[in-house]
Design brief:
This protein is an alpha/beta fold. Helix content is 29%, strand content 24%. It contains 14 helices and 20 strands. The strands form four sheets. Strands 1, 2, 10, 11, 12, 13 and 19 form a seven-stranded mixed sheet that branches. It is globular.
Length: 445
């Protein structure tokens, strides 16, 4: 333990593991510790016995639910965009060789009490029952504009500078209705609230393009992919990667107390009476509670079912987004469903999550609109957790703290945090221009 490291990473959550892998590949000497005896921290993956122990104490699951070992229930379930930045990070670090992906069956959106497939192209817009005849034509024109838009080709801009024009102004030009804007903004561009409407349209258009390109990539029913056996595979894959580059992993290290010098700079971490020295500390909010503040709370329900979510074309894996306006809320609600098709449950069983940013103290009531869409459930667990953001200045104390995971069921906001942290720690911009086909070999159709 008494060696000196460039970086000590505390906690084996997804963000910390990705960073540990990226930093090791970048040539830094990394020590990675966790107080728990398992990988994953808040984003761990539980079997049935662990799930019961966590939510039901000494109760035991019924035999009808099948073998405990066949369950891999992710505590922070999120799908990956096939062409998104997380997949680029996985390829950049070559972690893809440890993982097998499978395309997610469907992406859906909730509108006026029903579930619809998210139309992502001009052809799908024309077929979608989400819109009336005239609105379909307007939406089709807008989709064609987005598909043809190339930043380096002024001809495709139609006289609009998307770095100056807001998303609202762009949408107004095409005369789209509020309901259409709702599903495009929240279920396609994956914005978590409506603040994007008054920002430059470039980000909005690029996010729509990412969705369409990811959808086209594997010709599946959605733009998302998900690892077989769930996300619990990810931290372990990054642990292997880190070891290849000379990084050291230690689980079951109690306390993990960060040591500071007289100027308040982190200089090491002590556990069980031994101190490892370092230049920088990377951790999740639970390791430095006095350097973070609470900004919100996520409410979620974890359900075990014996059938797919109704009205999703019998999809074995699916995401449904319930835009806030449809529910009269301030934040969107998300449905995530996975099953034995991704090896996260025994044959015939489905795991569904309903999650949202909590606006009350009653998760059972608040999550009801999402739970009502699931049909009969065999078991249901309710859970809330606080969301923290760092309040420290990393240039002053050398501590780099990740933000807590949000309620979204896709990885876009998580990866943004990781990339920003990487840039802050190394002073380098992470180059994610990779050959995306490197991940398709690992993808099982």
């Amino acid at each position: 333990m008494d060696e000196e490291y460039d970086v000590i990473v505390l906690g084996t959550g997804l963000k910390e593991c990705i960073l540990s892998g990226l930093l090791s590949v970048n040539g830094l000497k990394v020590l990675h510790m966790d107080r728990n005896d398992y990988y994953g921290g808040a984003s761990s993956s539980l079997n049935l016995m662990q799930l019961w122990k966590r939510f039901r104490g000494n109760d035991k699951p019924t035999e009808q639910l099948g073998s405990s070992r066949e369950y891999n229930v992710d505590m922070i379930p999120k799908f990956m965009m096939a062409n998104g930045r997380l997949v680029r990070v996985l390829i950049h670090t070559d972690v893809t060789k440890y993982l097998h992906f499978k395309v997610v069956d469907g992406g859906f959106v909730y509108n006026k009490g029903k579930i619809f497939k998210v139309p992502a192209t001009d052809v799908e817009a024309l077929r979608s029952p989400l819109m009336g005849l005239f609105e379909k034509r307007r939406a089709r024109k807008f989709f064609i504009y987005v598909q043809d838009y190339e930043e380096n080709d002024p001809k495709s801009h139609e006289g609009l500078d998307l770095n100056k024009v807001t998303a609202r102004e762009l949408i107004t030009k095409y005369g789209l209705e509020d309901d259409t804007i709702d599903f495009i903004g929240h279920a396609l561009a994956l914005h978590i609230d409506d603040s994007y409407l008054d920002k430059p349209a470039m980000d909005f258009v690029m996010k729509m393009k990412l969705y369409a390109e990811s959808l086209a990539r594997f010709q599946g029913g959605s733009p998302y992919i998900y690892p077989l056996y769930g996300l619990g595979e990810l931290p372990q894959a990054f642990a292997r990667l880190s070891a290849v580059y000379g990084g050291t992993y230690m689980l079951s290290k109690p306390e993990c107390k960060v040591e500071f010098d007289n100027n308040g700079k982190a200089i090491g971490v002590t556990s069980e009476g031994e101190t490892a020295k370092c230049k920088k500390v990377v951790c999740d909010p639970s390791y430095l509670p006095d350097k973070v503040r609470k900004v919100g709370k996520v409410a979620r329900a974890i359900c075990i079912m014996s059938h797919p979510i109704p009205d999703t074309n019998d999809s074995h894996s699916v995401q449904v987004i319930l835009p806030q306006k449809q529910l009269g809320r301030k934040s969107d609600m998300y449905l995530f469903c996975c099953s034995y098709a991704h090896n996260v449950a025994p044959k015939g069983k489905y795991i569904a999550f309903v999650s949202t940013e909590a606006e009350t103290d009653k998760p059972e009531v608040e999550l009801k609109p999402g739970i009502d869409l699931l049909g009969p459930v065999d078991e249901i667990f309710y859970d809330t957790y606080d969301r923290f953001v760092p309040t420290n200045k990393h240039e002053v104390d050398n501590c780099y703290i990740s933000t807590s995971y949000d309620a979204t069921t896709h990885f876009e906001s998580t990866v943004e945090d990781v990339i920003q942290m990487y840039n802050n720690i190394t002073g380098k911009v992470l180059d994610l221009s990779v050959d995306l086909s490197a991940a398709s070999a690992a993808t099982e159709e």
